[in-house]
Design goal:
Elements: E1 5-8, E2 11-14, E3 28-29, E4 36-40, E5 45-52, E6 59-63, E7 68-72, E8 75-76, E9 83-86, E10 93-98, E11 107-113, E12 119-128, E13 131-134, E14 139-143, E15 148-155, E16 164-168, E17 171-172, E18 181-186, E19 191-196, E20 205-211, E21 217-224, H1 238-253, H2 259-299
Parallel strand pairs: 4-12, 14-21
Antiparallel strand pairs: 1-2, 3-5, 5-10, 6-7, 6-11, 7-8, 9-10, 11-12, 13-15, 15-19, 16-17, 16-20, 18-19, 20-21
Helix pairs in contact: 1-2
């Protein structure tokens, strides 16, 4: 940039551009880009590196753990063709695309510019296994004529699933012609609820919650006539309601790195299951207590 000269009363005064308005002569990174990315297994990941004033220098992507050069410019320098550099002419952005990422691809990747000395910017990639969880026991016993009520929560997913399908065996039941089937899916909370009204023995079977890009979860449902096993589903259990609310809260407060919250959830879940067991066993305990008092009074 040429500094203009101003003539005043026969003298020539040179106007200098303030340093903060002068262009950088060396490449530098635009720090406004996102430096950490979380994706699920199989979902392509994109790390965006933006370099200003690059000039004739080259941009490379390097895997930090083994210092392996993945790309230089738009050329791939690894036999693993899942790694690719994306760049448009005239753009300041150099994007590393990782196709079909696996958990082992998690780690730090560096965007490096061939200045002297070299400059680099680190990016963190987290690849997680997203999975579904159906709340409650893995095996349920339902009295004939009662409702089947299943709630599925999708954990460890950075983005809400595009769909959640329910299966009975190998058949999708979201759009079943049976009647009395209601599926409510809430993407924001990553939950889906299946309600089957007035269940009959033919509704018995393996029920699977299958979200997009996530591992599925299954429960076995038995619809019985007259029997009343201890594992019978109770829709009015306060412990079950608390457990369901806790699961949804877990999804809301944490969609990426949930290690601490998952441990807390597992601990509280075990406590609530113990409380639920005590609720069911309470009648028996009271009965035994009354019987013991009666026997004691008759023996006096």
């Amino acid at each position: 940039r040429v500094n203009p000269k101003i003539e005043f009363s026969g003298a020539v005064i040179e106007h200098h551009t303030p340093y903060w308005e002068q262009p950088f002569s060396q490449p530098y990174f635009d720090n406004s880009t996102r430096r950490e990315m979380t994706t699920t297994v199989g979902q392509s990941a994109y790390l965006h590196c933006r370099v200003r004033n690059l000039g004739d220098r080259a941009v490379s992507w390097i895997r930090k753990r083994d210092l392996h050069i993945l790309t230089v410019g738009i050329l791939t320098y690894t036999n693993d063709q899942r790694f690719q550099s994306l760049h448009s002419d005239g753009s300041d952005e150099w994007t590393l695309k990782v196709s079909s990422p696996q958990v082992r691809d998690s780690g730090t990747y560096e965007c490096q510019v061939s200045t002297e000395p070299k400059i680099s910017q680190a990016f963190r990639l987290n690849v997680v296994v997203s999975k579904a969880k159906i709340l409650g026991n893995p095996e349920l016993y339902i009295k004939s004529g009662s409702d089947i009520n299943l709630t599925c929560v999708v954990l460890q997913t950075p983005e809400p699933p595009s769909f959640i399908y329910w299966y009975q065996g190998a058949h999708v039941i979201n759009y079943s012609q049976r009647g009395g089937i209601n599926v409510v899916t809430e993407k924001q909370t990553r939950t889906s609820r299946l309600l089957i009204s007035r269940a009959q023995p033919q509704d018995s079977g393996n029920y699977t919650c299958s979200p997009s890009s996530s591992d599925s979860a299954s429960v076995m449902v038995h619809v019985l006539n007259g029997e009343h096993p201890a594992a019978m589903q109770h829709g009015n259990s306060s412990s079950g309601s608390v457990l369901q609310s806790l699961s949804i809260l877990l999804v809301l407060i944490c969609s990426e790195d949930c290690t601490v919250y998952r441990m807390l959830y597992i601990t509280i879940e075990r406590i609530l299951r113990l409380v639920l067991f005590c609720e069911r066993a309470g009648i028996l305990i009271i009965g035994f207590g009354v019987l013991a008092l009666y026997l004691r009074s008759t023996s006096i």
